[in-house]
Amino acid sequence: MPKGIPSATVSRLVIYLRVLTDLESEGVSRASSDHLAAEANVSAFQVRKDLAYFGSFGTRGSGYTVATLKNELRRILGLTRPWRVIIVGMGRLGQALAAYPQLDQYDFKLVAGVDVDASKVGSLIGDLPVHHLDDLHELVAEQTVDIAFLAVPVDAAQAATDALVRAGVPGILNFVPTVVTVPAHVTVESVDFLAGLKRLAYFLQVAPHDGEREAAAG
């Protein structure tokens, strides 16, 4: 993949892939940059600019072949190989993640859970065997783990992250509402539900009410 790709571009590629996957399931064979732009809430120019980082995929005047562009985006995003995933923290959130139904669609394979609760260690939660955090290094080596979902309490987040780094896990999807620190060779993506709710509250608060819109229009 080319270096220096903006993070926002990668995020939009994920949206384009979802749109193309939906179109293919509906039997649509071609899509225009205008269609992808409307679905992603960006301009057609932005779609073309995002894709141009990686090559030329469309034909002027006739758009993109849905199946071809979908497969190219899967390749660009690293979704043509299996990724082995563990869940660190098997509380309610960890168990919900274990039951998420669409991971296998993109070759994200859950292989184990990790916890420090003696009542969970050694058991199965769903189909996942639960290991103790102390055994993380052996688990990562044995299962060739690529990604960890971090779903521990806030006060345990950095210590669990440090354990993952020591064990050699290169990617962490952080569901804990706190910032964790990692060395440069480890990548962290954060999923912060509370931050999303706070942003939503802000936009709802500053948006004019219907009556105010009518008054402004009048």
Provide structural commentary.
- The protein is built from 9 helices and 9 strands.
- With 218 residues, it is of the alpha/beta class.
- A 7-stranded mixed beta sheet has the order 5-6-4-3-7-8-9, sandwiched between helices.
- The protein is globular and about 60 Å long.
Strand tally: 9
CATH class of the largest domain: Alpha Beta
* SSE-based structural type: alpha/beta
Shape: globular
N-end to C-end Cα span: 53 Å
Beta content: 15-25%
The biggest beta sheet, please? 7 strands, mixed
Which fold name corresponds to the CATH topology of the largest domain?
Rossmann fold
Mean pLDDT comes to 90
Strand order of the biggest β-sheet: 5-6-4-3-7-8-9
Poorly predicted regions: none
Whole-angstrom Rg = 21 Å
Reported CATH architecture of the largest domain: 3-Layer(aba) Sandwich
The CATH superfamily title of the largest domain: NAD(P)-binding Rossmann-like Domain
- Count every helix, treating DSSP H or I runs of 4 or more residues as helices: 9
Number of structural domains: 2
Helical content, roughly? 40-55%
